[in-house]
Design goal:
Layout (H helix, E strand, L loop, with lengths): L1 H26 L6 E4 L1 H6 L2 H30 L3 H48 L3 E4 L8 E2 L1 H4 L5
Parallel strand pairs: 1-2, 1-3
Length: 154
């Protein structure tokens, strides 16, 4: 009987100790500060994005002019074998031009993305936010810090 009582007391003490430590651990948790950013608005105000889109539009217009010249050159060719050779040549050049335009635009977008990420991280940390979400990914809550980041966007 004494052993059962002693076991019961020790188990109760161990349970109480564990419960108390658990309460202490949970009572130290602090709420996170949450913010959100309208990335579309930031991208729309980016001069680098506008410049990249303008450059891509100009390159596309140049490519269309080149295509008209290539089509005229192919039409001038008299032999079928000559036309096929020119078509292959111009198709390879067209593929290279498309890839060049795509790669240049992607490179610029990646640069802007990196710059935007760094601006958001820096400003959010300076303002004391623990979490920052895209505005379209957040259902409710948080503070909009888009206007604070707009001046940092190039």
């Amino acid at each position: 009987m004494k052993k059962s009582l002693l076991t019961l007391v020790l188990c109760s003490f161990a349970f109480g100790l564990g419960f108390g430590i658990n309460n202490i651990a949970f009572s130290d948790v602090q709420a996170s500060k949450v913010a959100y950013v309208n990335v579309g608005k930031l991208l729309a105000s980016s001069k680098s994005i506008k410049a990249a889109e303008d450059a891509r539009a100009k390159q596309t217009q140049d490519m269309l002019k080149w295509y008209d010249t290539a089509s005229a050159d192919i039409a001038k060719q008299q032999s079928a074998a000559g036309k096929q050779a020119l078509i292959k040549k111009y198709e390879a050049q067209l593929t290279a031009k498309k890839k060049s335009i795509k790669d240049a635009y992607a490179k610029k977008i990646n640069e802007v993305d990196t710059q935007l990420d760094n601006a958001i991280k820096t400003k959010a940390k300076a303002m004391g936010y623990d979490l920052v979400f895209r505005s379209d990914a957040l259902l409710f809550g948080g503070t909009d810090i888009t206007s604070s980041i707009l001046p940092l966007v190039k």
